[in-house]
Structure formats: C-alpha cells, structure tokens
C-alpha cells in the first residue's frame, strides 16, 4: 500500500481546458514519488500505459502513484500537458507503414491519441481509422516505387489551431500531400473547404513547408466511381480506388525523403484574432513574425512610430499620428504591437488602448479579466469633462476607429459640452502630459452611427484650437487635411491597404466595396482569385443549410467562432428567428465555448453591425434585410416609412460593409426566399458569390 502523503511539495500542471479528462500531477518529495490525479476515469489506453510504467491505483486517495524515475516523470509531464507533444499519432516511412500489422497500428493510434491529445476515443473515430487503414493498405501500396519514399503521418495536429488535424499527410523534401478521408459517397461544400483550409494553412504558416508543393485531396471511401476532378481552389476529389493513380500523377518527378523531425517540429505562425493578440500582450509575449503581417508594411509603420515616440519623449513634443486601413488590414494589431513594444523598451512610458466600440471593449475586458489595458473612449472623455483626469499618465494613447469620434453636435446631446471628442483628447494631452503620441487608427467607410461622419476634419479643427504646436504624421493622402496650420510628416507606411482578416484574400474589402457601389462586373472579375485563395463566399436561401455548413465544418474546432449577423434595420428577418437583440451579452456571445448557452456557435442569437464592428469571427452567417434591396440598377435607399426617405444610403452601405468584412475564413449570406429579394439574390450570384448547395 502506498502511504498517504503528509508533507509534500506540490507542482500542479493542469491539462488543457475543455478536454475530457484533466490530469494533474504532484511530486511527493518525502516518499520520492509521483502522484497523478484525473477528473474522470482515463481511457483504457492511458490506464495501460500507466500500468506498463509501474504506476498503481491508490483506491483511498483516488490517484495513480509510483516511485519517481526519469521515465515516469516524463510520462506524468506528457499526460498533464507539461512536456512537449509529438503532435501526431503515427509516423513512419510509407514502406514501413505497408508492413505494419493492423492490430499493432490501431493500438499505437489509440494510445497516442489519448496520450497526445487527452481526448476520449469515440467508436466512430476508431471505425474511421480502420476504414482509412484498410483503404490505404489496399490502394496506396500500388504507387510507383519512387513514391514509396514519402513519409506518412496520421492525425498531425496543426500548432495553435485548436486541435485541427488532417487525417493523413504524405511528406517529402519537395511536397506535402494532404489526404482527408470521408466515409461517404458524396461530398458537401464544407468537406471541400475543410481540406482546402488545411492546404492554405500549411502553405501559409508552416515554415518547413514554405517551399514545398502542397496538394489537397478529398478521398471518398464509399464511392467507387468518382474519377479524380480538380476544383478551382486546387482540391482534388476522387474515389479511393483511384488513389494510387492520382498520387503517381500528382507527385513530382523526384521524391526525396525529408528530415521528418524538422517538419513535425516546424515553426508555425498563424494569424491570431484580436482577442488572442491582446492575451499575448498581457502575458508579455510578442506576436510571432507572421509573414502575412510582414508583407503589409506593419513592421515599418511600427518602426516609424517608435522613432516618433523617442523624439516626442526626448524633445517634449506632442504628436498626432494617423494610420489608415481597409477593414481587416491589421490596424488593431498595429496598435496593440506598438503599445507593447514601447512599454517594453522604454521606462516610465504608460499607454492605453481606447475605442468607442463598446462591444470590442467588453469582449477584450472579459477575455483579459482586466480594465486597465483597454478603455472606452467615451468614459475617458467624460472623466476629463468632469475634472477626474488629474494625474493622467498615459503618454501613449491609441484610439482605434478614431474617425468615429463624436463630433460637437453629438457631444452636446450626450455630454452637454460644445467640444468634440477630438477637442477633449487634444486638451487632455496638452494639459496633463509633458509629451504625448496620440495614435489615431482610421477605418475607412465604416461610419455607422449618427455623429461619426465628421471623419478626420474634426481632428484638424481640434489642432487649430489647441494651445500648443502639434506635429502630424500621416499617409500622403491625408496631408492636405492638416498641412494648412500644422507641421506634417508624410509616411505611406501609415496606409494599410491589404487585409489580414481573410488570410490570403487581399482583395475582399475591395470586392465588397464594388458590390455596394453597384460595380457588379468588376466584382465578378475580382471574385475568382479570392475564391481560389481559399476565402469562401456563399449565398443561400436556406438558413438551415448555412447553419449545417458551419457546424459540420468546425465540429472539431472548439476555438473556432461562427455566428449570425444582421443589420439593425433588417426588420423582416424576425420571422426567420433572426433579430439582433438590443445590448446583447457580447462577451459571452464571442468568448463562450461553442456548447455553452449564449455562444455565437449556438446560432440562435444574432448581433447587429453596432455589436460586431471591430470583432472578427471565422464564418459569419449574414441575414440580408429589406434595408438593402437591389432594384435592377442599384441599391434602393432605405425607407423607414413608405414614400419617405429616412436617411441616405451611406449608413446602410457602411452597415453592410461592416457585416460582410467580419469573416476570417469567408462568409455566408442568407437571402429570404421571397419574391422581393429575387433581384438581390441574383445580383450577389452574378457578383461571384457561390450558391451553397
């Protein structure tokens, strides 16, 4: 009997939240022992591995115990998420795979699945493995001898991708072939998009694959007559009996074995969400040097901002810097990175991230469990009006979506003052700070609230009313606004014109603008490279199909987010159970686990343009309302009452611009199956959106 512990030094390592069992281990220094506890009964494979390594079950203390050895410590660390994971279930040369016994292979897969991923093995998953093994042994062994030089990997977990795992990878020095197996005779759009996304991510973010040809293949194991066909996005679909023929055709002339360990342990640098980025900064971690971000000019912009900061601090200057960008261009990433870099490298420099976007602030505050890092701009402004900002010490102020600052008219209504928010921030910096850098991040074409359409003119007006001489740094296109009375430094790295949100599809924002401007033919021409790059754009008249697509595509990805968006003026959608609620619990909608009530992934709560602006989800479903109808020639002006224009088209267009640019993987537009929506449905199809079948 293993004695009960009295005096112990505990070192708890908690496994990943959300897994089926959550083990911890502790060292019993008094007894030179290791004790492992589970929240639930571990799988048989885990129990067998524990027994094989000398661990025994302590019935009274409800834990597994053993004397400490290096091997046992390594197993405990691995089970509890402390040790570095292998990131796969099985890896060998293709030749060795052909010689392995099915029972032995399946035993390895089951053991490693439990040990590596901490997941319970469902019977359906085991059946899928057996089906995959049988088909590969039968059909893949027929490949040419040169192709037997590939290494094969099963269930490789893409780093930082929430457990996303391609079924099978064939890897050589020259090529990566992705095999995604489906036990069916027909495929769905989400099946195609899933394997295309694997190819996109491995090509874009996997360092050791940067010079390799990546070939995505969808294999239908229950179909015997599907000859290989290649889609525009590069995905090849086929019946399993054509597999060896296709591999021989698609493989390069030379197949050279690669250093498989280097490939498995490669740097992998995916694009984080805004929330993920903010968490990294709070944990004092810099964002990875993502090549996508590097290509946008963001590093050059940050470098110049840091030079301006040094100049302002040393020479006691006040600088207004403006960075413009299309939706998803990385303005917020730039702001967060700038704040982090400056605070890390400079002593006695404090900063704050400001936004008038209440939902974004709520989501960030909830995710960070802190209200120090981010502040609502309206709150800070109100505190200054009330004289509560004495001792304010934030020399670096980053104002996201600064073109949406309230103008004088809105401030008079809301705060009974004749000063705009721009006036007040300039006043705050001048009177409370010896020096400052006020960075305005400017989104283009996203003014959706009354009082936000004064744009950047009010910043020039505020500078003209100021008591101190300011320096303005901005892109070339803004120089004329400020040059009359200010010293202006032009730098075109301050204009971010490529989108990051949509991965490879740099032209998504331009595409959306063309649709909203009625330039349908131009939009159609632009849609082809966007779709080919892996950004999925669908339109459907069946809301159920849209929901099924999202749940099927992201069923194994608990960190992926999909949800319903709709215009605040889309009154007609309530009969489809799409009605954006007033003041939703946006942090719960965005941050909750997919299975939790209130999560966006439940697809039962819609949010409007006011609540999703500044946020991003992987796949939004956008309900199309009566406030944006195509009349055959252009978009009708929204009419609140019949025959009376309630507002110009600008806010409606901007609302849909916001809704249509929230997606990271793409978007789905739901058009009600009503006659009045027929022209709108047809024009979206004609612009290049794909019909979701």
Please provide a written account of the structure.
The protein is of the alpha/beta class and 693 residues long. It has four domains: 1-83; 90-264, 3-Layer(aba) Sandwich (Trna Endonuclease, Chain: A, domain 1), CATH 3.40.1350; 274-496, Rossmann fold, CATH 3.40.50; 512-691, Rossmann fold (3-Layer(aba) Sandwich), CATH 3.40.50. 36% of the residues lie in helices and 17% in strands. The protein is built from 25 helices and 27 strands. The strands form five sheets. Strands 12, 13, 14, 15, 16, 17, 18 and 19 form an eight-stranded parallel sheet that branches. It has a seven-stranded mixed sheet with strand order 5-6-7-8-9-11-10. A six-stranded parallel sheet has the order 22-21-23-26-20-27, with helices on both faces. A hairpin with a 4-residue loop joins strand 3 and strand 4 (63-67). Helix 11 (298-315) crosses helix 12 (331-345). The longest helix is centred in the middle third of the chain and has 18 residues, at 298-315. It is globular. The chain starts with 23 loop residues before the first strand and ends with a strand. The model is unreliable at 1-21, 287-292, 446-453, 501-505 and 641-647 (pLDDT under 50).
């Amino acid at each position: 009997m293993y004695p009960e512990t009295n005096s112990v030094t505990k070192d708890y390592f908690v496994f990943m939240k959300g897994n089926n069992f959550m083990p911890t281990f502790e060292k019993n220094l008094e007894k030179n022992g290791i004790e492992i506890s589970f929240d639930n009964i571990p799988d048989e494979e885990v129990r067998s591995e524990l027994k094989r390594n000398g661990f025994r079950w302590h019935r009274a203390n409800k834990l597994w115990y053993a004397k400490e050895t290096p091997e046992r410590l390594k197993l405990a660390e691995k089970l509890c998420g402390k040790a570095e994971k292998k990131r796969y279930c099985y890896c060998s040369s293709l030749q060795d795979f052909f010689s392995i016994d099915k029972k032995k292979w399946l035993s390895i897969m089951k053991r490693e699945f439990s040990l590596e991923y901490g997941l319970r093995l469902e019977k359906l998953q085991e059946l899928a493995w057996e089906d995959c093994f049988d088909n590969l042994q039968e059909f893949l062994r027929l490949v040419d001898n040169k192709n037997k030089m590939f290494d094969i990997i099963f269930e490789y977990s893409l780093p930082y991708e929430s457990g996303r795992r391609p079924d099978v990878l064939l890897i050589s020095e020259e090529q990566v072939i992705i095999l995604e197996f489906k036990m069916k005779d027909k495929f769905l759009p989400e099946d195609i998009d899933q394997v295309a996304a694997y190819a996109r991510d491995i090509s874009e973010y996997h360092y050791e694959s940067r010079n390799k040809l990546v070939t995505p293949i969808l294999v239908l194991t229950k179909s015997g007559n599907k000859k290989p066909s290649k889609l525009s996005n590069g995905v090849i679909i086929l019946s399993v009996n054509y597999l060896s023929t296709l591999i021989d055709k698609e493989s390069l002339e030379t197949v050279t074995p690669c250093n498989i360990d280097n490939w498995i342990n490669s740097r992998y640098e995916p694009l984080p969400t805004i929330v993920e980025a903010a968490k990294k900064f709070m944990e004092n971690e810099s964002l990875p040097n993502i090549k996508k971000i590097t290509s946008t000019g963001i590093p050059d912009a940050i470098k110049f901002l840091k030079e301006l900061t040094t100049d302002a601090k040393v020479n006691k200057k006040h600088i207004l810097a403006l960075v413009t960008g299309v939706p998803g261009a990385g303005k917020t990433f730039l702001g967060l990175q700038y704040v982090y870099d400056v605070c890390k490298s400079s002593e006695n420099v404090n900063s704050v991230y400001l936004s008038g976007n209440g939902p974004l602030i709520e989501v960030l505050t909830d995710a960070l469990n802190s209200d120090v890092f981010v502040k609502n701009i309206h709150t800070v402004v109100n505190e200054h009006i009330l004289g509560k900002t004495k001792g304010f010490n934030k020399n670096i102020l980053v104002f996201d979506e600064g073109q949406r600052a309230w103008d004088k008219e809105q401030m008079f209504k809301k705060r009974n003052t004749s000063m705009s928010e721009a006036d007040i921030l300039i006043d705050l910096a001048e009177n409370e700070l010896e020096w400052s850098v006020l960075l305005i991040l400017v989104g283009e074409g996203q003014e959706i609230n009354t009082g936000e359409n004064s744009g950047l003119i009010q910043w020039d007006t505020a500078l003209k009313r100021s008591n101190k001489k300011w320096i303005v740094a901005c892109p070339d296109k803004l120089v004329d606004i400020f040059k009359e009375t200010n010293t202006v430094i032009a730098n075109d790295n301050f204009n971010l014109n490529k989108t990051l949100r949509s991965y490879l599809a740099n032209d998504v924002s331009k595409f959306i603008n063309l649709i909203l401007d009625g330039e349908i033919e131009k939009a159609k021409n632009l849609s082809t490279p966007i779709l080919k790059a892996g950004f999925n754009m669908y339109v459907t008249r069946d809301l159920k199909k849209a929901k099924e697509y999202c749940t099927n595509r992201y069923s194994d990805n608990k960190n992926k987010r999909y949800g319903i968006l709709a215009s605040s003026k889309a009154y007609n959608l309530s009969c489809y159970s799409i009605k954006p609620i007033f003041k939703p619990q946006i942090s719960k909608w965005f941050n909750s686990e997919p299975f939790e009530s209130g999560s966006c992934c439940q697809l039962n709560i819609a949010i409007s343009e006011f609540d999703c602006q500044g946020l991003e989800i992987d796949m939004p479903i956008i309900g199309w309302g009566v406030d944006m109808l195509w009349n055959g020639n252009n978009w009708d002006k929204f009419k609140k009452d019949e025959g009376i224009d309630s507002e110009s088209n600008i806010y409606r267009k901007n609302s849909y611009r916001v809704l249509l640019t929230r997606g990271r993987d793409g978007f789905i537009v739901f058009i009600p199956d009503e006659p009045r929506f027929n022209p709108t449905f047809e024009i979206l199809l004609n612009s290049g959106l794909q019909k979701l079948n």
